[in-house]
């Protein structure tokens, strides 16, 4: 039996992850601002610890993780799932709105990672899973700040993966596509500028057919396969659309780099340090 620590566990993908772990007989520390033991099946009560936690509060995160470890003994899998989505053109974001996007998606995951690492390092084992997004594959109109927060999460996580590996701790970045969660119904939005009305109309035409998304259960099944692997990848794409998009964007970038190779290489010519010339 392994012990999971899952943020944003009260609903959406986090709830699906928690349910899947409990169903297989594992122990779960379910953390969220609104989580309650009543949210889960009563038959799992002896393997469930619920924590009301705001991941943007670093002091509270450190205390919550220490308290959880004191109660359950150890952590084996940590899933940084808590996230928020704010839509709007980049120019429209206020400072407060921009910072709020990063507070949860980047800093929340950072604080949890910092809090669990001393425990995972001490036991020289563990697996941190950072739940990123399709938005980390590229920037798209109206989701620029969301993409920025997920890009930042992945950059931090790549470095952390290499740092933690020295202590036997693994890290994986999961990049999901669309799932039927309450992320869509809890979206916040900027105050629109009229100048972007034509672009918004074009986006609405593109989205007119609606979203064809998947059941969160499928993401949970993929996560179980990830954490059960003896050689888990740094990145895991969830969904055919995300998989295809990742390859399309990578090819486009490689084509652009190749087209500008001469300019790139001409911008570098090693010389001695100025004081040695």
Describe this structure in words.
This protein has one domain (3-241): NAD(P)-binding Rossmann-like Domain (Rossmann fold, 3-Layer(aba) Sandwich). The chain is built from 8 helices and 9 strands. The radius of gyration is 21 Å and the shape is globular. It has a 7-stranded parallel sheet with strand order 3-2-1-4-6-7-9, with helices on both faces. A two-stranded parallel ribbon has the order 5-8. It is an alpha/beta fold. The relative contact order is 0.12. The model has no long low-confidence stretch (mean pLDDT 93). It has helices spanning 12-23, 58-72, 95-123, 144-165, 197-206, 216-228, 240-259, 261-266; strands spanning 3-7, 27-32, 48-52, 77-80, 86-87, 127-131, 170-176, 188-189, 235-238. Helix content is 46%, strand content 14%.
Summarize the structure.
The protein has 277 residues and is of the alpha/beta class. The protein contains eight helices and nine strands.
| Radius of gyration using CA atoms only | 21 Å
**Named CATH architecture:** 3-Layer(aba) Sandwich
CATH class: Alpha Beta
- Total domain modules: 1
For the sheet with most strands, the description reads: 7 strands, parallel
